[in-house]
Amino acid sequence: MKIARFRSNGRTAFGVVQGDEVVEIRGSIYTRFRLTDTKHPLQDVKLLPPTEPSEIWCPGLNFANHLEFAAGVLGDENPTIPEHPEPWIKARGSLTGTGDPIVLPKDSTDVHYEGEAVAVIGKLCHRVTPQEAPRYILGYTCGNDVSDRTWQKDDWTFWRAKGADTFAPVGPWIDTDVDPQKLEMIVRLNDEEVQHGHTEEMLFSFAEIVSYISQQVTLRPGDLVFSGSTGVTVALKPGDRVDVEIPDIGVLSNSVEAEAA
């Protein structure tokens, strides 16, 4: 099932995507809902970020083939594979949806894409085991952990390097019926493939990351947990378009703009 959050005629609603239509639902995506008779052509609605999370979590370095590149960004000459997830919070205000622009801050210098898969928490999650964690995940979607490499290196924290406004595109919808560790992640920059990875290569699975976070922090319905990024990335510039595709889910597409003077 593909669950979308959308706006139509000034009203925000959830619906189930069926072919080229979205069928409105009544009830909560986190508990129970039913389909209504109200349908909209997908092309006529504005797709929104699929949830309104209280927190957005990223796991840090979670792919071996991204480790050396990321270590170079941070000036670490001897990168080592982490012994456990190293989660951190991406600012809630960075969230944006498919079709919306990634806005390059006027004082940014080296902003990169990072195409990732994203787990959507489905119910209150506290101190769960990795074996229990999948029962607390509603489904999965596409994400882009946009990052300014200069700020990432120079600042003590990632507060602006990864948390600036529009630096967390997520969408287009939630798929509730995929194998999270068998997902293919493809990033295209202006239609050219620039990043390609698979979630089976994650150093820590979604279940392990969610479990690890939940030992100290309660995850809530709608919260988002990113997979981490693969490989090497390059800088974005105004006029670019970046697409994050997970074939089993869909395509997250964003243009790139410079911040207005």
Name a few traits of the molecule.
single chain; 261 residues; mainly beta; SH3 type barrels; Fumarylacetoacetate hydrolase, domain 2; 2 domains; 5-stranded mixed sheet; 3 helices; 19 strands; 10% helix; globular
Number of helical segments? 3
Major beta sheet, specifics? 12 strands, mixed
Number of strands: 19
- The CATH architecture of the largest domain comes to Alpha-Beta Complex
Oligomerization: single chain
Give the overall average pLDDT.
Answer: 95
Count of folded domains: 2
- List low-confidence stretches: none
What portion of residues belong to β-strands? 35-45%
The class by helix and strand makeup works out as mainly beta
* Shape, principal axes of CA atoms: globular
Order of helices and strands: EEEEEEHEEEEEEEHEEEHEEE
Helix fraction, binned, reads under 10%
Please state the CA-atom Rg, rounded to the nearest Å: 18 Å
Q: In CATH, what is the class of the largest domain?
A: Alpha Beta
CATH topology of the largest domain: the name is Fumarylacetoacetate hydrolase, domain 2
Give the terminus-to-terminus CA distance. 43 Å
Task: Find the CATH superfamily of the largest domain.
Answer: Fumarylacetoacetase-like, C-terminal domain
What would you note in describing this structure?
- With 261 residues, the chain is mainly beta.
- The chain has 3 helices and 19 strands.
- Strands 1, 2, 3, 4, 5, 6, 7, 8, 11, 12, 14 and 17 form a 12-stranded mixed β-sheet that branches.
- A hairpin with a 2-residue loop joins strand 1 and strand 2 (11-18).
- The protein is globular.
- The termini are far apart.
- 46% of the residues are buried.
- The mean pLDDT is 95.
